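# step 3/5: fold
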Amino acid sequence: MSRGRHSAAPAAPARTRRLPALALIAVLGAAVVGSGPQVAVGTEDTGVPFAGSTSERDAKAASRSGDRATLGAGPRTDTTDPTPAPTFEVADEPTPEVVPAPDPEPEPEPEPEPETVPDVTGQMWTTDAVNVRTEPSADAERVTTVPSATVVDVTGATDDGWSQVVWDGAAAWISSAFLSETEPEPEPEEQAASTSGPSGAACSVNPEIESGLQANAIATYRAVCAAFPQVTSYGGLRPGDGGDHGTGRAVDVMITGETGWQIARYVQANAGSLGVTYIIYEQKIWMAGDSASAWAPMADRGGATANHFDHVHISTS
C-alpha cells in the first residue's frame, strides 16, 4: 500500500525523563562525603524527594557529622597559637652607684673649764731636792723634782704637812719639811767643789773598774769616792751595753735615799770640770747645760734598778 498523505506519521515514543549518569554519581558521592545535608534530587517536573523522609535525612546527616568530629575533621576548638611569641633581649640598666652617706661629724667635746690658779702670797726656798706633786700626798702624781735652793711660789695653804705652791701655772704641792723662808747655806761638799774642785785621789772601793773606763768617767768615780766615803759599791764598763756603759763613759754609784740626791747635786756642781753630760736618779734625768737645772721625769721602765732608784747613773763625755 502506498503511503499517502493520510497516513499519520508514526507516533514518537514517549520520552522518559532519566537522570544523567554523571549527575547521579555526583549526587551519591555528595551523600557519602559531603559536609552537610544534601539537596534531594527528584524528577525535573514533580519535585518528588529522592529518597526517604526529611527526618531520616536529618538523622543520617547528624550521624555523618558525628563521624567527622570523631575523625578530627570538625571545627578546631584549640585557640592556642602554636607560633612561639617573639623574644626580645632587654639591655640591663646600669646599677646606680650607691654613695654612702658621710658620717656625721662628731660633736666637739666641751672644753674643760680652766682650773682656777690660786693667788700667790709669797716665796720659799727648797732645802733639798724635792718632788712637786699634784695632790698633798706621797702617792699623788709627781710633776717634777726640783733641786735644793730653788725658789717656789707659795699660796699659804697647807694640808697635813704639805704646802701648796704654784708651779708652771698650776696648783701643786710640796712637802713642808723641804721648804724654808730663807735661802739654805751650801753644803760642805758643794763649798769644797766651788773652791778647790773635786778630788782626784785613787779610790779603794772597786778600783778594778778603772781599767774599763774613759778619762772623764775615772775622774768622776774618784771625785765621788773621795766626797762620799759611805758608798760601798760602784759599777763601770758593761760589755755589750748599747749606751755609755758599753763604751766606758758611765759610772753607777750604788746608793739609795737622800744620800743619792746629795751625790747627784755634788756631781751637778762639778759637771763642767768632770765632763758630765747627764745624771739619772729616781726616774729623773738632768742634762748638763740646762739653764734651768731642771730634773725631767722619765718613763717607767718596770723596776727599781731600771728606774734608777737604787743607784745614781752618771754619764760623761
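# step 4/5: annotate
Residues 54-70 form the longest helix (17 residues).
# step 5/5: archive (pending)
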